[in-house]
Each structure stands twice: as structure tokens, then as C-alpha cells.
Hints:
By secondary structure, this protein is an alpha/beta fold. It folds into two domains: 2-210, Spore Coat Polysaccharide Biosynthesis Protein SpsA, Chain A, CATH 3.90.550.10; 216-303, no CATH class. It contains 13 helices and ten strands.
Amino acid sequence: MISVLIPVFNYDISFLVSCLQQAVSESEILLEIVIGADGCDKNHIMSYQALGKLEGVRLIVSEENIGRAGIRNRLAESAKGDFLLFIDADAMIQGNSSPFINRYAENISRAKVICGGTSYRSIPPDDPDRFLRWNYGIHREQINAKNRNKNPYSSFSGFNFMVEKSIFLKLRFNEDLRRYGHEDTLFGYQLRKAGIRIFHIDNPLVHEGIETNREFIIKTQDGIQNLCLLYDKVTDKRTFTKSVKLLRLYRWLNIFGITFIIAVVYKRNKRKIEIYLRRRKSTLLIFSLYKLALFSYCRSSLSGS
């Protein structure tokens, strides 16, 4: 049986839950839908409480914001199913929810962890201030299962995946990461170290929560700081590096002392680069170089350079 778990922070999930709730009555596989409200305001809590009264839907509430990892762990602990299907709050199901659930059920025997994938609307957002996030998503995150299975651990995403409950409770998401970003990277690394297979299928959800360029840059900064923290904490840096293209490039450039130069350039031009990235015509190449420069700067700051 499958428990669908939706962590949420002040986001309207009425449509998502209503779509999933339809599958509760149509499918013998789906057991429950559990909403995890993480430090939300009163108006949103009232909305979630109304959803929690629907057939097959439960609500758990954390009055304080415990973070993405913490609320996911609490959802897993409360789940009644043997398999946990995590869905981010800003996801949208394409079409009927029953086929979406059934595709996961059909692949349960393939692996302990199954990832469905992420998709984006093919048309750019009307608001040019949201172009960077959409552009990144459609060219970096919207990947078919065949290509994701070539590097299954590097391609792991917590946006839309199913995991055997017993496996998840052994590993769990790391609650030390309070900022946004790279919780998925660490979880994929833990799965690789534990020898737990990941299998990717074509069962994507549409990512609807497209942040503004400024918001996405701030989240990127948080993610890079998390990555820097994790790089120091993991015991097997070689294996961890395999999961992150940015780290592989950084380690290669660091051999030749180039990362120090990149860090200096970033420090001197940080503001100009960020202003450029917030323009509609900014490129993903510049965005990738920005992340490399930011990580190099974080590493040089830690080393006291």
C-alpha cells in the first residue's frame, strides 16, 4: 500500500489534493494522503484542515517551521503505507491521478526507490522575472527516464519519488540542513553508499512553483552553502563528488589553482553578475559559471584564503 506525502509551507494545494483524492476511491493500491504543514500561517492551516476532512486525507501540523527535511521525516513516521510517495506541494498532476499512482505501483518490484521525474510547461512564463527558473528547469531538470537511469544517483530528486518505508526510516533526510538545497544530493549519496538501487520511470509531475529570478538566485546561494557544508561533512568525498557535476569541475580546476582566481573574480563582480542573471536574456552557461564561482568563494572563505 502507498501513502502519498505532501510537505507544504504556505502554498495552495487544494487542486493537487483533490486530484489525488480521486485516486483514493478508484485505486485499491493507494492507502492515504498525508499533508504535512510546516510552520504555516493561520489562513493556510484552515485550508489544510478543510482538506484533511476529505476521505483518505490526513493532516499533521508542525507549529514551528522545522524545514524541508524535518517535515518529510515526520510525514514518513506517521505514514501507514509500506511505500511512501513524496510529492512537493508545487507539483501538478497531468490528467487523471489514478494512472499516475498505478505507474508507480506497476514498478514497485523494480527497486526500493523509484523516481518519476519533473516536467515544465513548454511555453515560457508571461512574467520575464520568472524566466531564469523556468529556463533552468526545462533544460536541466526535465530529463527522460532513459537518460536519468544512466546516472541514477546523480539524477535523484525529492520532487516526485517513491521509497520503501523501511529504507527511508533507516536513512531519513538530514535535518541539519535548514537552508534550501541539496537535501536530495545527500539522500542520493546515502542511497549509493548503502547500495540501494534507484530506478527512474517516465511519470513526471509538472513543477508549477516558478520563483522570480531574485528568489531563485537566493535559493541557489542557500543551496551552494549547503553543498559546501556537506562537502566537509561526508566521509567519502570521492563518491559524493560523483553525484554533483559542479564538484567534479571544482576539484579538477582546484588542482591547477584556478578556483582561487575564480573566487576573487566572484568577490569583485558579485553584484554585476546577479543583476545580469535577473535579466530575461541571461544564459544558463553564465548561471553555471556563477554557481561554480560562488562555490569557489565559499571554499576559499572557509580555508581563510
